[in-house]
TrEMBL record:
Its main location: membrane. It is found in: Membrane. Belongs to the UPF0382 family. Pfam families: DUF423. This is DUF423 domain-containing protein. One of its GO terms (cellular component) is plasma membrane. PANTHER family: TRANSMEMBRANE PROTEIN 256. The chain crosses the membrane at residues 5-27, 39-58, 70-88, 100-124. Keywords: Membrane, Transmembrane, Transmembrane helix. The keyword Transmembrane applies. It is a multi-pass membrane protein.
Length: 128
């Protein structure tokens, strides 16, 4: 599981850098400042959670079942939150009906919050 988490964190981090460069260099010709700022929020949260996964992989004091739960929450949250933000920020460039995915951003954010909460409560319950 640890290897899977590290690989996923590295992959999500790599994609965040690629998307960040894409937004900063290519999309700035086509998007408004507001749309670029929105796109950047997706990149930022994606990178935060790539680092979170790498941190999670170092924890030896958390049960594997709990680690899997946190991992699944974070990965789904990043896909829904950052993915939907990328689509919403670039909707002026596509014919995709972004109304279909409006629910994805808050759902993804909620999953990310729950992932952090599970980690918090797990550590809080441990006696040190």
């Amino acid at each position: 599981m640890k290897r899977k988490i590290v690989l996923t964190g590295a992959f999500i981090g790599m994609l965040a850098i690629i998307f960040g460069a894409f937004g900063a260099h290519l999309l700035k010709k086509y998007l408004s400042i507001e749309e670029l700022n929105t796109f950047e929020v997706g990149v930022r949260y994606q990178m935060y959670h790539a680092l979170f996964l790498l941190f999670l992989s170092t924890r030896k004091d958390i049960a594997e079942k709990t680690v899997k739960t946190i991992y699944n929450l974070v990965v789904a949250g990043v896909v829904l939150f950052s993915g939907s933000i990328y689509i919403l920020a670039t909707k002026s460039l596509t014919v995709f009906d972004s109304k279909i995915i409006v629910f994805a951003t808050p759902l993804g954010g909620f999953l990310l919050i729950i992932g952090w909460a599970v980690l918090f409560l797990t550590i809080l319950r441990k006696k040190s």
